[in-house]
Write a structure and sequence with these properties.
By secondary structure, the chain is an alpha/beta fold. The protein is built from ten helices and eleven strands. It has two domains: 121 residues, Rossmann fold (3-Layer(aba) Sandwich), CATH 3.40.50; 126 residues, Rossmann fold, CATH 3.40.50. Strand 1, helix 1 and strand 2 form a beta-alpha-beta unit.
């Protein structure tokens, strides 16, 4: 567990120090920051596996830090701590994906259990990265948020070329790809991956469903060919099927 870094962001020096010491007593590494800004500038963002964040702070508050990280595509599990528990802040934090919302003071055992739960979820989700490739920014954002609401990690890219340059290819467990895009189209992207020997399951989505594109996609091994809009449950079932390595294709509009 020594490799697992937990970062504490709290403007109260006493809380920072005692929480960091507590985390280290659990066997984790701890880093403490007096503000969201100092955490973001620290270079520790990509090493941090779980964040413990105060809700009310000068400058960027905890909820704003959560929003900022989400907008940057960073999905570190967040445990909020606060001396001023209010229902609206709790609702916003949990709705945006927080692991927990703890009122100060909290017990050592309570914090340890929540950290362990957060790290288990992070390790499980790390094996299930779903990448979305779509030139429509609105579709990318809403699909990525939907995927995360299912409990997976999501990464979004505006083009096939952006995805291929990202370094996420070997981490991606399933691809959701628009058929029609500027530059490399979805079908061309599928062919390129096949030529490279990459067999990531592909779910095609399109607002322009035509029989020939559908035929080519499914014949080349696509998991599904979905017409926009599609239901949340429909997408979830297809992703689960893809991750379960089920071989039968799904053609639906």
């Amino acid at each position: 567990m020594a490799r697992e870094l937990i970062s504490v962001v709290d403007d109260d020096e006493s809380i920072r120090r005692t929480t960091a010491l507590l985390i280290e007593s659990f066997g984790f590494r701890a880093a403490a920051f007096e503000s969201a800004e100092s955490f973001l500038k620290s270079g520790q963002l990509h090493d941090t596996l779980c964040l413990i964040v105060d809700v009310q702070m000068p400058g960027l508050n905890g909820l704003q830090l959560q929003s900022h990280l989400a907008a940057e595509g960073c999905r570190i599990p967040i445990i909020f701590i606060t001396a001023y528990d209010d229902k609206e802040s709790r609702r916003r934090a949990m709705q945006a994906g927080a692991v927990a919302f703890l009122g100060k003071p909290f017990s050592d055992e309570q914090l340890l259990q929540i950290i362990r739960s957060a790290l288990r979820g992070e390790r499980k989700a790390a094996r299930n990265l779903i990448s979305v490739v779509d030139d429509d920014e609105s579709i990318r954002r809403t699909t990525a948020l939907l995927i995360e609401s299912f409990g997976f990690r999501a990464a979004a890219f505006e083009s096939a070329d952006a995805f291929l340059r990202s370094g996420q290819l070997h981490d991606t467990a399933c691809l959701i790809v628009d058929v029609r895009m500027p530059g490399t189209s979805g079908l061309e992207f599928q062919s390129h991956l096949a030529d490279e020997g990459c067999r990531i399951p592909i779910i095609f989505i399109t607002a322009y469903d035509d029989k020939e594109s559908r035929r080519r996609a499914m014949q080349a091994g696509a998991v599904a060919f979905l017409g926009k809009p599609f239901s949340d449950e429909q997408l979830l079932q297809i992703i689960r099927s893809a991750l379960g390595h089920e071989k039968r294709g799904t053609e639906t509009t």
